[in-house]
Amino acid sequence: MPEKTLAPEANPAPEAAAPAQPNSGQNKARSLGQDAWRELRASPLFWISAVLLVLFILMAIAPSLFTSGDPRHADLRGHYLAPPSWSHVFQDDWFGYNGQGQSVYARTVYGARASIIVGVCVTLAVTVIGGFFGMLAGYFGGWLDALLSRITDIFFGIPLLLGALVMLQAFAHRTVWTVVLGLTVFGWMQIARVMRGAVITQKQADFVTAARALGAGTGRILFRHILPNAIGPVIVVSTIALGGYISTEATLSYLGIGLQDPVISWGVDISAAQTTLRDAPHVLLVPATFLSLTVLAFILLGDAVRDALDPKLR
Fold first, then answer.
1. Domains in the chain: ranges and CATH
2. pTM score of the predicted model
3. How far apart are CA 199 and CA 207, in angstroms?
4. Which of its termini does the chain have fewer beta carbons within 10 Å around, N or C?
């Protein structure tokens, strides 16, 4: 009997497609920082505050880019309380002159340096000091937590403005660094409490327990595992507080306890303008407007960072 031959199939079934390889660039898990940056880029508040802050920081670093005038040059005979001259927008007299015959615009531009330096340096100092104390109290607990918490409560009982005012009275000559010192001594407590709470939450996480079981030391656990995960709330509070430190410096200078001549700052100019407010309101309004915009920019930036770091607010 002849052997039957199987005819080849007309349309053979295609081979099973190989499983698609995941796109490592698209499906790779993002870190907290990358995810926060992605949210910040989509936030209008972030871009508004960023543009303002870049402008003011450039003004503080290189004031000559914004004005060619001398902020200390005085001409009482020709410029005493001269009003703004809007016909000379690109010159140094378009914001008028103060009671010493000095350009309000030039002094406002140069005044950004001292005010921003005070705000940034105080923020860095209180973040380091408060963050360190809060991290120790939150991680070790026990008697150390009780001791540091009581010290924090004592300083919390002293208002920032009042404490800095009393402390700065002890200095015969007050500079930027004495003001930074006074605000730092009475301004680190909020950061300490925020860090303490964040560390208490993070030290109970599974990755900390695993690191401790693998023999990681206290320093490695604190700075490599807990701190990167607990620093988010501290960054938010510090960013918002920075604007508050700038306004506090202006308040101290307005009261005559902060920065003094020959230092040029917005607070010093606002203090000097109070005697001529009725006759020349522009002398006060110009530096006060720049101060308000700077504080507002830092507050907006803090709000944007808070929204980006907290998934519950998205």
1. 51-71+94-313 (1.10.3720.10)
2. 0.82
3. 13
4. N
